[in-house]
Amino acid sequence: MLEKLSAPPVRRQLIDVEAIMGIARRQWVVVALCATVGAMFGIAYVMTATPLYTAGTSVMIDRGDTSQVVAQLSTAGPAPGEEEAMIVSQIALLQSQAVIGAVVDKLDLTNDPEFVGTPSAVATVKNGIKSLISLTGLYSPKEAQADTAARRQAAIEQVGRGMTVARAGRSYVIGVAYTSPSPALSARVANAIGDAYLDDKLESRYEATRRAGSWLEGRIAELRQKALEADLAVQKFRAEHGLVSAGQTLMSDQQLTELNSALIVAQSETAQARAKHERIQKILDAGQSDAIVNDVLDSSISNDLRQKYLEAAKTEADISARLGTDHVQAVRLRGEMAEYRRQMFEELSRIAQSYQSELEVAQAREKSLQESVEKAMGVTFSANETQVQLRELEREADTYKNLYQNFLQKHQEALQQQSFPLTEARVITKATEPDRASHPKKLIMLLAFCFLGGAAGAGIGAFREFRDRFFRTGDQVRDVLDLEFIGTAPMIDESAGKVAGVQAGQSPRALRKSNVASNYVIDHPLSSFAETLRSAKIAADLTLAGKDCKIIGIVSTLPGEGKSTTAINFAELLASQGARTVLIDGDLRNPGATRAIGLHAEEGILEAILEKKPVGDLLLYNPQTKLAFLPAVIKRRVPHSAELIGSLAMRDILTSLSAEADYIIVDLPPLGAVVDARAAANRVDSFIYVVEWGKTARRAVRQTIGNEPQVRDKTLGVILNKVDHEKMKLYRTYGSSEYYYSRYSEYYQENK
C-alpha cells in the first residue's frame, strides 16, 4: 500500500526580500528624483552657507588635591558613581550662565562688532530713535539698564548656542569648543571660557573655605567651652567622691597595692617563724640538747657550755681510760658534764621561747596587715563603682579636648588656604585660531541632503506602495479572491491600426467594428490575450463538460474595466475556432458591445423580449468568423432592466439559441453598479470575471464578489485586463508567472 506524501510546510520568511526588491524596482525613480532634489538643495546650501570656525580648549580636572578643608570636614566615603556625577557637574558648570556671563563681561561681547555683527537697517533706526529719546530725557535710566541686561542675556544665550562641551572618553579631560564666523573670536571666546571656569572654581573654593573658616570659628568657641565644662566636671566629681590620684592611679589603689605587698612579706615571715618554732619544739620534745640550731651556734653561752662539755668529756674519757670509770675524778667529771648538758638544754629552751615570741609577733603583724588590706579593698571597690562615672566624664572631656584641638588645627589651615590660589582644574590646551572652516562640511552636508532626499523619496514610495490597493499579479487574485487566475489581457491602443473586416457596402446585418480592440484576437491570434481567452475556453469546457451549449457571462465590478471588449474577443476566438458562438449584449443600460461592433443595428434584445420578435431576424453576423451577435438597441431609458434580463422571455431566447449554438457569451452589466447580473445568474452556466489591472481596488472586488455568492460559485476565473506588461515586470517575484514572462513570451506574437 502506497503512502501519501504530504507536501513540505512552507517556511514563512520574517523579511520578504523579494517584496522589498520589487518595491525598490517600482519606486527607484521616485527615490532617485527626491535624492536629486535633495542634492540640489545641498549644493545650494553649501554655496550660500556662512563658513563657521571652531576653536577648542581642554580643561583637566585634577583629583589629586586632597588638602581642601571642606573635603576634610566630610566623613562620608565616595558614593557609587561619584566620579561620573562629578564630571557631569563640571560640564554643567562650564555651560552655566555664571561662567558664560563672566566671558561676556570680560570680552565685552555686547559691544564687540565681530560678535554682534553688522546691525540691520531696522536695528540701526531703532538705536537712533533710542539715542534721540535718551537725549530728550524720555528714555529713563531704568529702561536703559533693562535694555543693557537684555542685550547681555542675549549675548549669553548666543555664546551658549555656539559652545560645545564634551568629555574626552573616560578621562578627566573636558573639551570646550566655540564656533563663530570669526576664527579670532572663536579662539578668544574658547580661551575666555576656560579662564572663566578656573576663576569660578577659585572663587568658589575661596568662598567655601571662607565659609568653612567662619563656621569653624563658631564651632571652636563652642568646643572650647564644652571642653572646659567637661574638665571642671571631672575635677569636681573627684573632689566630691575623694578620688585623690597619684599620677595615673588613685591613692586608694596605690595603698592597696602596697598593703598587698606588705601582707605577702608578713605572711612569708610568719611562715618562716612558724617553721623555726616547730623545729626547735621538736628538738625540745626529743630532749636533744646537742641539736644543731642556727641561734644556738650564734649564742656565745651555748658555745661556751658546749666547749666546757667537750673538754670535760675528753678529760673524763682520758681518766676513765687510765684510772677506770669509777675513779673519783671521772665521776666528778661526769657530774659536770650532766650539768653542762642541763644548762645547754635550758639555753635551747630560752631560744625556743624567743622563736615563740617571733612567731606571735609575725602572726600579729600578718593579721593587722590582712585587716588593713580588707579595709583598703572595700575602699577600692567603692571607688571603682564611682570610677565608672568618672571614666565617662573623663572620656567626654577627652573627646571635647581632641575635637577642640582638631578644629583649631583645621581653622589654622583654613586661614592659610584662603590666600592660597590653587584649584582642582587646569587648562592643558589653549585655543588657537583655526585655519579652516569647520562648518559647513561640504561633502558631508551634500551626502546628508542626498540621504534626506532619498529618505523622503523612500517615504513617498512607501506611501505609494501603501496606497497601491489594486490587483497587479495573479497571486494577488488567488490570495484575495480565492478564485482561479485565468490570465492577463494587454492594454490595447484603440487608435492604432485599422479594423479588419469592416468595409463599406457590406450587408446591414454584418458586424461593423469601431475600434481595433474588438478585433484584437482575430488580428493577433498568437498574442498573450488570445492565449488567456483560450485558457478561459478550456476552463469552461472542463467545468461545463456535460452541457451541449455553454452559457458564459462576462462581468466586472465597475464600468470601464473592459468586460465588453473581453466578451467580444472571447466570442470571436470561439467562433474562429469553429464553434457556433452567439454573443449577447446583456447590458441594457450601457450596451458597450453594441457600440463597439453593432452601432448600426436598429433592433435587438429588447425587441425580442418585449415584442416577441424572432431572434434570428435580430442577429448580426461576422462573415469572417461566423460569429452571431444579438445587440441591445436602447431607444429610451429602461427602468426595469433587471426584470427583463431575468424574465421568462429571456429564458426562452437563451433556450432557442442554445439549440443552435455551442457557446453563448453574455456581456452583463457590472456587479457593483446594478443588479442585472445577479438577476441573470440563474440563466448563466458560469461567469468570467474581468478586473482592470492597476485601477480597480482589491477591497471593492472582494466585497462585491463576496456579496454575490451565486456569481462567485459559478465564476470560472479572473482575467486581469488592460495590463501594462512593462510595468508588470516591476511586480514580479521569484517563481511567479510574471517572473518567467520574458522567457515564455517568445511563444506569443503580438503582430500577425
UniProtKB/TrEMBL annotation:
Residues 15-107 form the Polysaccharide chain length determinant N-terminal domain. It is a multi-pass membrane protein. It catalyses: L-tyrosyl-[protein] + ATP = O-phospho-L-tyrosyl-[protein] + ADP + H(+). Residues 386-465 form the Tyrosine-protein kinase G-rich domain. It is found in: Cell inner membrane. Its main location: membrane. SUPFAM superfamilies: P-loop containing nucleoside triphosphate hydrolases (SSF52540). Signal peptide: none annotated. Its EC number is 2.7.10.2. Residues 345-410 form a coiled coil. Belongs to the etk/wzc family. NCBIfam families: eps_fam (TIGR01007), eps_transp_fam (TIGR01005). This is non-specific protein-tyrosine kinase. It comes from Neorhizobium huautlense. The lineage of its organism: Bacteria, Pseudomonadati, Pseudomonadota, Alphaproteobacteria, Hyphomicrobiales.
